[in-house]
Amino acid sequence: MKLQLVYFARVREQLGLDAEELQCPATLGRVDQLIDYLVAERGERWQAVLKAPNLLVAVNQEMVSVSTSLADGDEVAFFPPVTGG
After folding, report:
1. Residue 85 and residue 51: Cα distance in Å, rounded?
2. What InterPro entries is this protein classified in (predicted)?
3. 59 near 70, Cβ under 8 Å?
């Protein structure tokens, strides 16, 4: 399965990456499984960022929960909560 991953704001800064195309196993059917896969492949820094309790996720520009299903070609975006002043 091929996914487009996009990282915004503090997530981008902490991971040092703004976007990537990821070829991953077809067994990754949900967002939480994708996060577990990325953490297992990339280590502690990724765990600290992607397992943060306030992390927001969008699939194809729609806010979703981590139990949301993924399909080939989806765009998955990770970002911190939006705040304003």
Report:
1. 26
2. Beta-grasp_dom_sf, MoaD_arc-typ, MOCS2A, Mopterin_synth/thiamin_S_b, ThiS/MoaD-like
3. yes
Please provide the DSSP assignment of 47-76 as one string: HHHHT-TT-EEEETTEEE-TT-B--TT-EE
Average pLDDT, stretch 62-71?
A: 97
| Confidence at residue 84, expressed as pLDDT on a 0 to 100 scale | 63
Q: Count of CB atoms within 10 A of residue 11's CB? A: 20
The whole-angstrom separation of Cα 81 and Cα 51 is 14
Q: How far apart are CA 24 and CA 70, in angstroms?
A: 11
Fold classified for 2-75: Ubiquitin-like (UB roll) (3.10.20)
